[in-house]
From TrEMBL, chain A:
It comes from Kocuria tytonis. InterPro entries: CoA_trans_fam_I (IPR004165), NagB/RpiA_transferase-like (IPR037171). Keywords: Transferase. SMART domains: CoA_trans (SM00882). PANTHER family: KETOACID-COENZYME A TRANSFERASE, SUCCINYL-COA:3-KETOACID COENZYME A TRANSFERASE SUBUNIT B-RELATED. The lineage of its organism: Bacteria, Bacillati, Actinomycetota, Actinomycetes, Micrococcales. Gene3D superfamilies: Glutaconate Coenzyme A-transferase (3.40.1080.10). The keyword Transferase applies. This is 3-oxoadipate CoA-transferase.
Automatic annotation (TrEMBL), chain B:
This is 3-oxoacid CoA-transferase subunit A. Pfam families: CoA_trans. It comes from Kocuria tytonis. PROSITE patterns: COA_TRANSF_1. InterPro entries: 3-oxoacid_CoA-transf_A, CoA_trans_fam_I, CoA_transf_BS, NagB/RpiA_transferase-like. GO terms for molecular function: CoA-transferase activity. NCBIfam families: pcaI_scoA_fam (TIGR02429). PANTHER family: ACETATE COA-TRANSFERASE SUBUNIT ALPHA, KETOACID-COENZYME A TRANSFERASE. Belongs to the 3-oxoacid CoA-transferase subunit A family. Keywords: Transferase. The keyword RNA-binding does not apply. The keyword Transferase applies.
Length: 219, 232
């Protein structure tokens, strides 16, 4: 069994965003989290037929607005000015989260501090005593979207892998993550284990040596 | 009976010490800047404020917090690049904080306006924000009991009102406006335009006038500079 090594180098966030975008089926309603996941929208065009949801009350969100197109009444979840797309719609916050919680969003892509083999996600609070807790819509998205994908660097700034046996940071959601996109590999999570779908600039055996969790090659 | 106030100061005059006040807006979008400024001038203190964020920069809610007038914040995302006044008060132990997942916050507010005492939701299950709360397994999922969130007053911004109190909003500035207006005992709304009855197509009314107590027209709402960054 061999895991396809689809690139000869680790991916930049933009290259990884293109990989994520390619996996989103046409017709999907998608929420892209703040940070790296936002880059995915740069790789989605009208021909992809993907409708972006933003939790502050819009379906059919367009790209970032600049110059004269900036309207303070039209922003994304990161509070940056954005554009409309043809056929977009607005709704209030309770409706916005109802469509999320109600299972109407096909997927969301979120950043993470830690993901474990049960698909538990930690991405809102480091747990450090002086940190001010701030959750935003992360828990609602992780729990509500039909599929939750994570997009992140495989290693944290301190060099420790962010794929873990069991999350040690406060959880955002329980058993919610089914796929993790990183600069070095794409992992599927099912039945309590990580399966490696493809690698970028690294062999499977070397990847196994970088993390402290069991990895299975894709069948 | 709808009150059309002459000024933002008159609109917020009834807010009393110790009141729970909902403040609409998601960052700058939908923030009732003039109503908050009037509340700062009005002087009510010991307030509990329900709002998505805990103030940006040195104006509006951030200024209200700096002045020590807010006893407790209930919000989803207090920490931002420019939330320094909240951060300082919080670290000094001078302000209480209840962090609520954003969708739970919106639904708790909606429930209050809809006469629902509490509800079960999957959001937050297994996390620190569900600690101490009742959990049931419903429809095959663990769900957490969350209670309605009522307020004495709401301060929100809409785009246009008619003299029946019907409201329409602009783009993502709608955000918490409709649910907060319904959840508050006394809802106060600033609008850019005030039109006669019939001046809004009934088919497009977003907030029916029954939820609105006071309307004040602020001809050209001030806009703060959009923050440089930050998160939800």
């Amino acid at each position: 069994m061999s895991v396809p090594r689809t690139r000869d180098h680790p991916l930049t966030p933009h290259e990884l965003a293109a990989v994520v975008a390619r996996d989103i089926p046409a017709g999907s309603y998608v929420n892209l989290g703040i940070g790296q996941p936002t880059l995915v929208s740069d790789h989605l065009g009208p021909a992809d037929h993907v409708t972006l949801h933003t939790e502050n009350g819009m379906l059919g969100m367009g790209g970032l607005a600049h110059g004269e197109d900036v309207d303070p009444d039209l922003t994304n979840a990161g509070k940056a000015p954005v554009l409309e797309t043809r056929g977009c719609s607005y709704f209030h916050h309770a409706d916005s989260f109802a469509m999320m919680r109600g299972g109407h969003l096909d997927c969301c892509v979120l950043g993470a501090f830690q993901v474990d083999r049960e698909g538990n996600l930690a991405n809102w609070h480091t747990g450090e005593p002086d940190a001010i807790p701030a959750v935003g819509g992360a828990m609602d998205l992780a729990t509500g979207a039909r599929q939750t994908f994570v997009m992140m660097g495989l290693m944290a700034r301190d060099g420790r892998p962010k794929l873990v046996e069991r999350c040690t940071m406060p959880l955002t959601g329980v058993a919610c993550v089914s796929r993790v996109y990183t600069d070095l590999a794409v992992f599927e999570i099912a039945d309590g284990r990580f399966t490696v779908r493809e690698t970028f600039g690294i062999g499977f055996d070397e990847l196994v040596g970088r993390v402290d969790v069991a990895l299975a090659p894709a069948a | 009976m709808l009150e059309i106030a002459d000024s933002a100061a008159a609109a917020v005059a009834p807010v009393h010490d110790g009141a729970c006040v909902m403040i609409g807006g998601f960052g700058v979008a939908g923030q009732p800047v003039e109503l908050i400024d009037a509340l700062i001038a009005q002087g009510a203190s010991g307030l509990t404020v329900v709002s998505n964020n805990a103030g940006n920069g040195d104006v509006g809610l951030a200024e209200l917090i700096r002045l020590g007038r807010v006893r407790k914040m209930i919000c989803s995302y207090p920490r931002q690049a420019d939330s320094w006044h909240f951060d300082r008060k919080y670290r000094a132990g001078q302000i209480e904080l209840e962090v609520v997942p954003q969708g739970n916050l919106a639904e708790r507010i909606r429930a209050a306006g809809a006469g629902i005492g509490a509800f079960f939701t999957p959001t937050g299950y297994g996390t620190p924000l569900a600690e101490g709360k009742e959990v049931r397994e419903l429809d095959g999922r663990h769900q957490v009991l969350e209670h309605a969130l009522h307020a004495d007053f709401s301060l929100t911004r809409a785009h246009r009102a008619d003299r029946a109190g019907n409201l329409v909003y602009r783009k993502t500035a709608r955000n918490f406006g409709p649910v907060m207006a319904a959840a508050a005992g006394h809802s106060i709304v600033q609008v850019a335009e005030l039109v006669e009855r019939g001046g809004i197509d009934p088919e497009v009314v977003v907030t029916p006038g029954i939820y609105v107590d006071t309307v004040v027209r602020i001809a050209s709402p001030g806009q703060q500079d959009p923050p440089a960054g930050g998160a939800a």
